[in-house]
Amino acid sequence: MADYMIAPSILSADFARLGEEVDNVLKSGTDIVHFDVMDNHYVPNLTIGPLVCEALRKHGVTAPIDVHLMVKPVDRIVPDFAAAGATYITFHPEASDHVDRTLQLIKAEGCKAGLVFNPATPLDYLKYVIDKVDMILLMSVNPGFGGQSFIPSALDKLREARKLIDASGRDIRLEIDGGVKVDNIREIAAAGADTFVSGSGIFGKGQDSDPNRYDGIVKQMRDELAKA
């Protein structure tokens, strides 16, 4: 599978110059802007909302924006992110009272829809809604904070999710988020992932004024993926 996509998580970027950071990381060869939305309710942290997504679009960002909602309830905020320019909207099934309805809502707003599974959340929901899913995001850390270490059991879960996707015959992206770095991205790809969220693994490299500072780390990730 050659269609690998790297999704830098802007949670680890320099927010004082976010537009420039996103421009530079996309120029380095990444594919999707990953957008971590935390509400200090579903997860113990508070981050960014639709206004920041809209600001990136107004800045000129045309790449897909992958909005990961770590919020509860979900439905109220979905139309706001759709209007702000989100491409994908993913959410945690535990945070929605009606998972099927939330997936339908995201689609009705013109976005691609996805489910996010925490490390201890089983994939059972997919038995009933895989026909409405464009992306499956597996958390390889517990959600709420950046900079955590990869949880190895996520590899078995990736293999399980890949089997479900392949059996469905549908075009569904399999994304991984948490502790993805150069030294483990090949193993993660081999387990079935095709979309790789990396925050500190990318933005933690070379925080200076060089507009090409992310080229090296992204190339290293691409080189590892080429060997998967």
From TrEMBL:
Reactions listed under catalytic activity: D-ribulose 5-phosphate = D-xylulose 5-phosphate
Active site residues according to the UniProt entry: 36, 177
Residues holding a divalent metal cation: 34, 36, 68, 177
Enzyme Commission (EC) number: 5.1.3.1
Molecular function, one GO term: D-ribulose-phosphate 3-epimerase activity
Keyword DNA damage: no
A Pfam family that the UniProt record links to this protein: Ribul_P_3_epim
UniProtKB keywords: Carbohydrate metabolism, Cobalt, Isomerase, Manganese, Metal-binding, Zinc
Any one Gene Ontology BP term: pentose-phosphate shunt
Annotated residues for binding of substrate: 9, 68, 144-147, 177-179, 199-200
Cofactor: Mn(2+); Fe(2+); a divalent metal cation; Zn(2+)
Cofactor note: Binds 1 divalent metal cation per subunit.
Biological pathway: Carbohydrate degradation
A single cellular component GO annotation: cytoplasm
Function: Catalyzes the reversible epimerization of D-ribulose 5-phosphate to D-xylulose 5-phosphate.
Family: Belongs to the ribulose-phosphate 3-epimerase family.
Name of the molecule in the record: Ribulose-phosphate 3-epimerase
Taxon lineage: Bacteria, Pseudomonadati, Pseudomonadota, Gammaproteobacteria, Thiohalobacterales
